[in-house]
């Protein structure tokens, strides 16, 4: 099913992908705990999946503000995408196919923009 998506929906989905990627990238650079942890051990000794971690000073105030901002962006954009009026005309498998189509269209659009040197 080839779908022509409204430009605002496609842009919102592309922005959602970018915001989520920015949040994931930032998260990879941050300490493992938001709060300072002196013991550094998140383990009980009873679970084979327990992991001993080094002590951490936790997030800086700037880190916490940026994480909160990015999470708010992701939530706002996800709400915009999922609540868009475009979806009201679809149901069942057609709706699922269109939602997957939007994801793929946004990725393709983003890749094309990057090839042209855009954001």
Residue share in helices? 55-70%
- Indicate the proportion of strand residues: under 5%
Poorly predicted tracts of residues: none
Number of helices: 3
Description:
The structure is a single chain. The chain has 119 residues and is mainly alpha-helical. It has a domain at 7-32 and 59-115. It is 58% helix and 3% strand. It is built from 3 helices and 2 strands, in the order H-E-E-H-H. It has helices at residues 7-29, 61-82, 92-115, and strands spanning 41-42, 51-52. It has a two-stranded antiparallel sheet. A hairpin with an 8-residue loop joins strand 1 and strand 2. The longest helix is centred in the last third of the chain and has 24 residues, at 92-115.
Features:
two-stranded antiparallel sheet, 58% helix, 119 residues, single chain, mainly alpha
How would you briefly describe this protein structure?
By secondary structure, this protein is mainly alpha-helical.
Q: How do the strands and helices of this protein lay out in sequence?
A:
Elements: H1 7-29, E1 41-42, E2 51-52, H2 61-82, H3 92-115
Antiparallel strand pairs: 1-2
Helix pairs in contact: 1-2, 1-3
């Amino acid at each position: 099913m080839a779908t022509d998506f409204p430009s605002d929906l496609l842009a919102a989905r592309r922005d959602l992908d970018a915001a989520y990627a920015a949040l994931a990238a930032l998260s990879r650079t941050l300490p493992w705990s938001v709060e300072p942890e002196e013991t550094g051990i998140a383990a009980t000794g009873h679970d084979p999946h327990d992991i001993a971690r080094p002590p951490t000073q936790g997030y800086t105030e700037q880190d916490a503000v940026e994480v909160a901002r990015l999470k708010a962006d992701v939530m706002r954009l996800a709400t915009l995408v999922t609540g868009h009026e475009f979806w009201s005309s679809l149901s069942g498998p057609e709706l699922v196919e269109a939602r997957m189509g939007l994801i793929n269209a946004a990725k393709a659009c983003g890749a094309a923009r990057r090839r042209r040197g855009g954001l």
